From TrEMBL:
Coiled coil: none annotated. This is PIG-L family deacetylase. InterPro entries: A-galactase_NEW3 (IPR018905), Class_I_gatase-like (IPR029062), GlcNAc_PI_deacetylase-related (IPR003737), LmbE-like_dom_sf (IPR024078). Residues 583-637 form the Alpha-galactosidase NEW3 domain. The lineage of its organism: Bacteria, Pseudomonadati, Bacteroidota, Cytophagia, Cytophagales. It comes from Hymenobacter sublimis. Residues 1-29 form the signal peptide. It holds the Pfam family PIG-L. Keywords: Signal.
Length: 881
């Protein structure tokens, strides 16, 4: 087998997607994967299975991890999960991140889950804008045609034999996004095979119609006693001896990666029936893949490949996997010939190319694994600025007895801009002795025009329902410039182009290192992403993506700045150097009628990662209008302006993610009166309400469970419980009497929303109330005041309908469905066509004090700078004063 240039085939192959390029988007910044002998054998068996299935739903956590684990590891199919959204509109159980930041976390949680259950992860550009009650509402916010186009693109790209939806296309799905995902899947089933639908895609892919579509129904949707005989049954609970786990055990570990949603799961062992209801396509009698040839016979001339693989499996020695390398190299040579040899003037056969490329990538992983060949390329720093050079520490270890020679290694950036360089070390040629590591240095320079490592779907503003992929991103990902093609070809490397970034989970790594090995007489090229490795004294080795940062990042302290009077506020702006020796100035851009002192600051950051914080005194002038506006911080360096910040999201279960949010913050000017001063705040799942209370002048004391004592609580004018506190703070089940005594003795307790599942105690209030999943999703739904004389609506601020204008995402959630008459409902509102809900705010007198439960989404409205939310919260914590 020889790696050879494919330039003569470039035009034909441009229309095809390659498995290798798909892999470049998966599982960045992970410790190099090692495979056990039994996992290698499982991989060999998978080489002989040419079948594919795509699972489709709406959100992270919607997927059936047990069925995915079974399909990927039991049926040995190419298995994918297409999530319409990234879960941006949900709540966060592990921290304060919401919206786009939460979407990044949940993207990584899905990737972590797929690394466990063996599936692959795909997305559309749909934005999770929050709970939706109907698909009609969903499609007024999503661009249905674009979401359908993305779904069709993934189907044409991955060519699944079978589609499976998690939800039915009707109200049983329980969420408008859920229902919409099933409707779209049925339409995509037809559209993917129609050349008249989305013909612009056919420059890169060919039409593909799956064999059939199923709905994966179950206890969520089926009524007790319903006849299930008409459904196909699949036992997804079997035990896989090569993995030493059942698919239920694998699924539990996979699902438990959804930590931001609190979905830690217990393993299930034994029979686990999954039910598939036929929806479209050829109807099978007993098996979802009935009538689909999943052997090498589905590829013209593929029988010879299957025989070679059978021979490798037959001779496999689990005590010496490297003995299989020679056979795998023969398999690879035949696959490459069938995949790349195209007779003159003829088009490539799609099935041959797709499965050839897919299986070549699998063979490469198996060869590397059988050799115990460890390769990694780590940058000496975790971030690099535009125009800077990057030094790499490269490590290669052959842990087999096979003869392996490293011929070449070189690095190239993953985007192609003017000024990018490839660094080549052509003098490496060295025999890799068994067990002896080879370490050397490489490097590359980042173009001065390189894009910062902002997640591609967050680079430009989209709409409420759709993310936008900038044109430059799509252009960069649609091919190699001729100069790069020549450089790669000169080193014996294939050039295959034509992949759009649509559907992919994350950015490419900033750069890759290509290794060219001589194994016996055969050449093999393997790649690894460039990343950063560090050693934590507790966690051990940790990997994170190498990110490209701007020369200077600009962060504004805080989320919203609230001016309840004309007194100035200090607004800190922190400048962070992306490279050494950054000098410039920073200023605030303010709306008309506002002013800052001073007008600007100069800064001089001598070293990389150095930070300097400057403080502006901002106040509204006589011309400043009441309501919400925004300010922006802008740094100027060498005539170029920069207005993006730096935000690292760090959790142990996912790789560190770095975002570059715009350096903007809401400015809120409002007429606000308040009573009381000292607030005790017990955090729940994490929110930014304490900062909002400080913004309006309160002294906020963050409490721990051990601080909830009778004596300590006595000093607070109000005690506020953070969102989902009764779901996340286990000690509340024993501390509840203390909180109620505080109320009984004259205190004021404000409880923010609690989910109706998983409360630490059955009753969270002084009198019975029943939590539910009821909500009002239309954020600006008209509000009726049930008792206009209620103190919460009048003191110290007069609440009007205007205070419910400009809300974001939703008005409220998890409203009680029933409550004791001692609770007084305060307001009423409804989504279109629904009965009014009256439990957004419930207040009860208890002893000398007051208890308030509110499902209003204050945790979203306050950081967004919604004036009415500040006035409502102030009235709540002021009650009784």
């Amino acid at each position: 087998m020889r790696i050879r240039s494919l330039r003569p085939l470039r035009a034909a192959l441009l229309a095809l997607l390659t498995h290798a390029l798909i892999y470049s988007f998966a599982a960045q910044a992970q410790a190099p994967k090692t495979y056990s002998s039994s996992e290698i054998l499982l991989g060999l068996k998978k080489l002989n299975v040419l079948g594919s299935v795509l699972y489709i739903a709406a959100h992270p956590d919607d997927e059936n991890t047990r069925l995915i684990a079974y399909m990927a590891n039991g049926r040995l199919l190419e298995t994918g999960y297409l999530s319409c959204t990234r879960g941006d509109g949900g709540q966060n159980l592990i921290g304060p991140e919401l919206r786009e930041q939460l979407g990044v976390i949940r993207t990584q949680e899905l990737l972590a889950a797929r690394r466990i259950d063996g599936g692959r992860q795909f997305f559309t550009r749909a934005n999770d804008f929050g709970f939706s009650k109907t698909p009609d509402e969903t499609f007024t916010i999503w661009d249905k045609e674009q979401v359908l186009s993305d779904m069709v693109w993934v189907i044409r790209q991955r060519r699944p034999d079978v589609l499976i939806t998690r939800f039915p296309p009707d109200s049983r799905a329980g969420h408008g996004h859920h229902t919409a995902s099933a409707i779209l899947a049925a339409e995509a089933f037809e559209a993917a095979g129609d050349p008249k639908r989305f013909p612009e895609q056919l420059k890169y892919v060919q039409v593909w119609k799956p064999k059939r579509l199923f709905w994966n129904t179950g206890s969520f949707f089926v009524k007790q006693g319903e006849d299930m005989s008409g459904y196909l049954k699949v036992d997804a609970g079997a035990y896989n001896p090569l993995l030493g786990q059942s698919y239920g055990e694998i699924a539990a570990r996979s699902r438990s990666q959804h930590k931001s949603q609190g979905f830690g799961s217990a393993a299930q062992r034994g029979e686990a029936l999954e039910y598939l209801q036929y929806v479209k396509g050829d109807k099978p009698k007993s098996d979802p893949f009935e009538g689909i040839d999943m052997s090498w016979n589905r590829v013209p001339g593929g029988a010879a490949v299957g025989k070679l693989i059978d021979e490798v499996i037959r001779k496999y020695d689990p005590s010496n996997p490297s003995a299989s390398v020679a056979g795998l190299l023969k398999v690879r040579e035949l696959l490459e010939f069938k995949t790349t040899y195209i007779p003159r003037h003829s088009a490539p056969e799609p099935q041959t190319v797709f499965w050839g490329e897919t299986k070549i990538a699998e063979v490469d992983i198996l060869i590397q694994s059988a050799l115990g060949l460890h390769i990694e390329a780590n940058a000496s720093q975790s971030a690099v600025s535009q125009g800077d050079s990057v030094k790499l520490n490269v490590e290669v270890v052959n842990r087999s007895i096979e003869s392996v020679i490293l011929k070449h290694a070189f690095c190239r950036p993953n985007t192609f801009q003017k000024g990018s360089l490839i660094a080549v070390d052509s003098s490496i040629r060295t025999v890799l002795k068994p067990g002896v590591g080879k370490n050397f240095r490489l490097g590359f320079r980042v173009s001065s025009q390189e894009l910062v490592s902002q997640p591609y779907w967050l680079r430009e503003s989209g709409t409420t329902g759709m993310y936008k992929i900038p044109a430059i991103i799509q252009e960069i990902n649609q091919g190699f410039p001729e100069s790069y093609e020549k450089q790669l070809a000169d080193h014996g490397l294939n050039v295959i182009t034509g992949q759009s970034i649509v559907g992919t989970a994350e950015n490419k790594s900033a750069a890759k290192v290509y290794f060219q090995f001589l194994i016996g007489k055969e050449l093999l090229v393997l790649t690894v992403p460039v990343q950063y490795k560090s050693t934590d004294p507790v966690e051990g080795e940790k990997y994170r993506p190498l990110v490209v940062v701007p020369p200077v990042a600009v962060n504004i302290g805080g989320r919203a700045y609230v001016f309840a009077d004309n007194q100035p506020k200090t607004i800190p702006v922190t400048l962070r150097a992306g490279k050494a020796g950054v000098k410039g100035s920073v200023a605030l851009t303010l709306p008309q009628g506002w002013k800052s002192e001073p007008a600007s600051f100069t800064f001089d950051l001598a070293s990389k990662d150095a930070e300097q914080t400057v403080q502006f005194r901002v106040q509204p002038g006589g011309g400043a209008q009441e309501g919400k506006t925004e300010l922006r911080a802008v740094a100027t360096v060498d005539g170029q302006t920069y207005s993006r910040g730096y935000q690292a999201i760090e959790y142990n279960h996912i790789p560190t993610q770095v975002l570059f949010p715009e350096a903007v913050a809401p400015l809120v000017k409002l007429d606000l009166k308040r009573k009381g001063q000292e607030i005790g705040y017990l955090m729940g799942a994490g929110d930014e309400v304490p900062d909002a209370l400080r913004q309006i002048g309160y002294t906020v004391n963050l409490l721990k469970p051990e601080d909830l004592t009778d004596q300590n609580l006595r000093r607070f004018d109000a005690v506020v419980l953070g969102v989902r506190a009764y779901n996340t703070v286990d000690r509340l089940k024993t501390l509840q009497p203390t909180l109620l005594r505080y109320v009984e003795n004259g205190g004021n307790l404000v409880v923010q929303y609690v989910t109706n599942r998983g409360t630490v105690i059955p009753q969270i209030g002084p009198y019975p109330l029943t939590l539910s999943s009821d909500r009002v999703t239309v954020e600006n739904a008209a509000v009726t005041f049930l008792n206009p004389q209620q103190p919460l609506l009048n003191s110290p601020n007069k609440i009007t309908a205007q205070d419910f204008e400009g809300w974001v995402q939703e008005q409220g959630l998890y409203y009680p469905s029933a409550w004791d008459p001692k609770y007084q409902p305060v307001i009423s509102s409804a989504d279109p066509g629904e009965k009014a809900k009256e439990s957004a705010i419930l207040v009860a007198n208890y002893g000398k004090g007051h208890y308030i439960y509110t499902g209003l989404s204050l945790f979203r409205e306050l950081p967004a700078g919604v004036p009415g939310a500040y006035r409502l919260l102030t009235n709540m914590v002021s009650l009784g004063k």
